[in-house]
Predict the 3D structure of the following.
Amino acid sequence: MSAKASEDEGPFDWLGNPVSCTDCPHEESRLKGLCDLGRTCVMDRRGKRIDRFFATNPAQAERYLSHPYFEVRTLAARHATPFRLPALIDDPEPDVRAMVALRLPLTRVRELMDDPDPRVRMALAMRLDGEALATFFSDEDYNVRLVAARRAAPGLLVRLKNDPDPAVRRVVARRIEDYLLIGMIHDPDPLVRIDVAARLEPKRLLLMADDADIRVRFRVAERMPLNDLKRLVDDADECVRDVVRERLQSNK
């Protein structure tokens, strides 16, 4: 059975053995109501139950930083004092290294910028800024670039306007400086162009009036100045023509 079984399953440890309180090393916590079999238990394999244990017993986290089950190490790293985390920088499990990347001072985790697993690099991208963050603009994994695009200063995003992944370019179209949007009106992906049309300066929307995608032209028709609407009066699509007529009639 998977270690990520449903939250309502019975208490089993990471090896699939039933869990009971009789052999638990945390009898004192149990007597204080700080753990609850099947809900708040470090011996359980369910991540939520392990996390609840460390949340209510943070002083115990350091004892589990070398536990053989990676999820225990990951969650222990979330709650342990940062002074104990450098030992986990080279942990074989990416989730553990990602947690370390999120919690240690940036000066201590720079070496993880070249980590082979994108989850670790994503964790760093969530913390860096400026040129350090821009380093991830060329990352091989689009998820890392996506995080970087969402967090980078708008002025830096011009470097990502030709990113190979349209999901990244959509974020760029939504966040890039207004005056740089003009360079994205011919993006090969219509969803990117829709985002461009939603922000482009209205007087420049005429440049997108002949877009091949109806969704783009529809957005253009909603926002372009009235004086330019005549360009779309005879649009090939009825939906676009309807928007044009409604706007013209409402402004008579």
